Amino acid sequence: MKWLTKLIDKIVGTYYEPPKKPKVIRVGDLEYKTKKELETIGRKIGLELDRRLSKQKLINKIKFRVKNKR
């Protein structure tokens, strides 16, 4: 029955979708990310990273930026 309600709401335009909560990224989870994902995370915090660097150096730059941002 929900699918019918959603369909009608989409057609009429009254369906309200709640805003999504931002994802929290832990420092320990950075080691499981790819270099491309690390670059994206860096951009979100205002840091431009070079993927030619090693993965550990990218992680260290992100950690340093987060610690100094507080």
Task: Characterise this structure.
The protein is mainly α. It has a domain at 26-70. It has helices spanning 2-12, 35-44, 55-69. Helix 2 runs parallel beside helix 3.
- Quick check: average pLDDT? 86
Query: What is the helix tally?
Result: 3
Following the backbone from N to C, one meets helices and strands in this order, namely HHH
State the share of residues found in helices, binned by percent.
40-55%
Major sheet description: none
For the secondary structure, the number of strands is 0
| Radius of gyration from CA coordinates | 19 Å
Inertia-based shape = elongated
Unreliable stretches (pLDDT < 50, length at least 5) are: none
Give the topology.
Layout: H1 2-12, H2 35-44, H3 55-69
Give the structure's gist in a few sentences.
With 70 residues, the chain is mainly alpha-helical.
Features:
single chain; 70 residues; 3 helices; 0% strand; elongated
